[in-house]
Amino acid sequence: MRARAVSWLLPWLLLAGGSQAIQITEFSSGITPGAGPYAIASGPDGNLWFTERYGNRIGRIAPSGAVTEFGAGISPGSAPYGITAGPDGNLWFTEAAGHRIGRVTPAGAVTEFSVGITPGAQPLHIASGPDGNLWFTESLAGKVGRITTAGVVTEFSIPAATPGTLNGITTGPDGNLWIAAGADHLIVRMTPVGAMTGFDTGAATPLHIRAGPDGNVWFTTGGDPPIGRITTAGTITMFGAGIAAGASAQGIAVGPDGNLWFAESGVDRVGRMTIAGIVAEFGSGITAGGEPTGIALGPDGNLWFTEPAGDRIGRLVTGSCSLDVDGNSAIDALTDGLMILRAMFGLTGAAVTNNALGDGATRIDWASLRAYMNGNCASFFMP
Ligand SMILES: [Ca+2]
Questions:
Q1: How many Å separate Cα 69 from the centre of its chain?
Q2: Residues 275, 326: one domain?
Q3: 369 alpha carbon to ligand 1 midpoint, in Å?
Q4: Are 281 and 357 within one domain?
Q5: What is the pLDDT of residues 42-51, one digit of tens each?
Q6: What local confidence, expressed as pLDDT, does residue 349 receive?
Q7: How far is the CA of 343 from the centre of ligand 1 (A)?
Q8: Are both 297 and 346 inside the same structural domain?
Q9: Are 134 and 173 in contact (CB under 8 A)?
């Protein structure tokens, strides 16, 4: 009888739960003022890792928002810049002013590598390659570097590159490296053995670059139009509709919803764009002047972004609302449905959860259930 009563309610709940609630939260506790968090990447340890460009450290932020900073082993004045997870279970980062590559273990132990890197090369962005190595741009040297997880560096010259033009790098869906050569107005496709092809972007100056969810490669320009798409055959399309003037699009990532998400440092927003080019921008919850720059999909299914000018890290919940409120990977009327029903009747605490948690539930008390529903399903359950 009870099962039937809950069953008729669920279709309504499904409809009610369809609304999307984008929620942004900022974290600053534990980040040294002036640190300038810049790039951010998801680590293999369930945390996110970010560079502190001016703080000369690497930061780690847990999905709970707890920050730990690591500075030991990083030479003074190194200016950590790009960061990515390596295939070896460590994080790898560039030192833009130290002209080195750094490796940090999930425990925070840093090793620096400089042998084989052109003096003054200014390494900027770094990506995990299709070949088990790390690849990075050397902005001032006009080269792309490859470093093995053992620290052996090989450099490849980009013939067209003028000093200061190489920015982002990513592994494309085609198993090649894709490189943003900003002031040269080029996207360079490079095979893992160093064969290069350049594609003219016209007036656009490619900055950050990421493989998209659609088999293409997407990039930001920092200018106007802010977003570009390049097919693996080299056909380029630019997108600007719906993006605020002066957005200065920076980091770009693929969200849990299959959309592209990008940081807009000029207008303190995060933008969302479908692969068809439909844009929405979100600024509520971002402190003015923070200048969102780096962005990554976290291990918790949320998007995380840096605010270099505000010394903050932001978390954006895309609002994917699942009725699996107890988090056991199953939507069930007699557990999830019953608890939602009890909460809607105004019950709280154990009166919600008693005899209603599913086997293997990961949210096992009212506080975590309430936080999940309020954060993801646009509900407003009180304590
Ligand atoms: Ca469940």
A1: 19
A2: no
A3: 11
A4: no
A5: 999 989 999 9
A6: 96
A7: 15
A8: no
A9: no
- DSSP-assigned letter for residue 245: T
Q: If you count them, how many residues does the chain have?
A: 383
How far, CA to CA in Å, does 182 sit from each of 137, 141, 189, 209? 12, 14, 14, 11
Residue type, 136: F
The span from the CA of 28 to the CA of 66, in Å, is 9
CA of 337 to the centre of ligand 1 (A): 9
pLDDT per position as a tens digit, 276-306: 999 999 999 999 999 999 999 988 888 999 9
State in Å: Cα 346 to ligand 1 middle: 20
State in Å: Cα 274 to ligand 1 middle: 29
The DSSP line for 259-311 is -EEEEETTTTEEEEE-TT--EEEE-TTSPTT-----EEE-TTSSEEEEETTTT
d(CA 40, CA 58): 10
Centre of ligand 1 to C-alpha 47, Å, is: 25
Q: For residue 36, what are the CA distances in angstroms to 79, 196, 291, 365?
A: 10, 34, 10, 37
Ligand 1 centroid to residue 357 C-alpha, Å:
8
Please tell me whether residues 339 and 196 are part of one structural domain. Answer: no
Closest CA to 310 of 330, 331, 332, 286: 286
pTM of the model: 0.82
